Design the sequence.
């Protein structure tokens, strides 16, 4: 019975790993399992859901939008945004 269940889980994991709705629950589920803190997991899921409801975009999309330099940014803000983008590029290159 265990082997059958394991095969089914692996099958679904391979074919459904890009479902965005499941990924939204992955972070809070991991927090719940690793720490056992239901309140923290609920807060994480609830805040992510609230941000998505209010802005119409996911948290990742909002962060990408914030990092795009704008004309009204001060020099300091432009430098910080550029360094964040450069650091992300370096990490992506080193992970491959």
Sequence:
């Amino acid at each position: 019975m265990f082997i059958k269940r394991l095969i089914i889980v692996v099958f679904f994991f391979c074919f459904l790993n890009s479902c965005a709705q499941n990924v939204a629950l992955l972070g809070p589920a991991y927090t719940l399992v690793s720490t056992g803190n239901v309140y923290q997991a609920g807060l994480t899921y609830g805040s992510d859901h609230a941000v998505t409801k209010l802005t119409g975009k996911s948290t990742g999309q909002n962060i990408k939008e914030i990092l795009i330099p704008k004309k009204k940014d001060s020099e300091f803000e432009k430098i910080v945004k550029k360094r964040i983008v450069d650091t992300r590029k370096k990490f992506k290159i080193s992970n491959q």
Remarks:
- Residues 75-95 form the longest helix (21 residues).
- Residues 58-96 form one domain.
- The chain has a mean pLDDT of 76.
- The CA atoms of residues 81 and 96 lie 23 Å apart.
